[in-house]
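Hey, can you fold this one?
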Amino acid sequence: MNHEVFLKAMTQIDDELIVSASDMMQKPKKKNPFLIFSIAACLTLICGIALFSRFSATVEISIYDSILSNQTIRVDLPAPAESDIRVSTPELISIPIQINADRIVHMSTKDGTIEVYSPDYSELLYTGQSYQSKELVYIQWKIEQPNIGKTYTLIINNNIDISLFYDETQKCWTIQKQ
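Sure. Predicted structure:
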């Protein structure tokens, strides 16, 4: 009889453990929708920042050692000889431009030519109307026989326009980024 009581006590404990374990397994955990949406929002934000920083290239354009902006910069032209009376327009305008970018930069012009030089100006790399580079480049934008009434444009990455025009108020050629 002693064994029967002991056996009954053991099976009763086992039955209670099985019932309590099955109760715990049957109760599904409630999912917190706020937690799921906040995790999704964080992942979306991280992906958006990563994509934005990848596709936004920084292009730094310098002319005469100053960063080009929406403000006009006066173009330095060689002074005409004192005996030369026809000071109306120069025969050639040559503008030194430094372009530094962290991605591929495409530059093109329909007005004049682009001469691309190595960073130390020791080697002429290209002469033409369009060029593509991923490193620091020095270019000379040359316009022959410029017309005072015309605006000349150099396009960089199809979204940055560098305009050269004659400013009637200052009586000089100026350049600016638009």
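The chain has a mean pLDDT of 77. Let me know if you want another pass with a different chain boundary.
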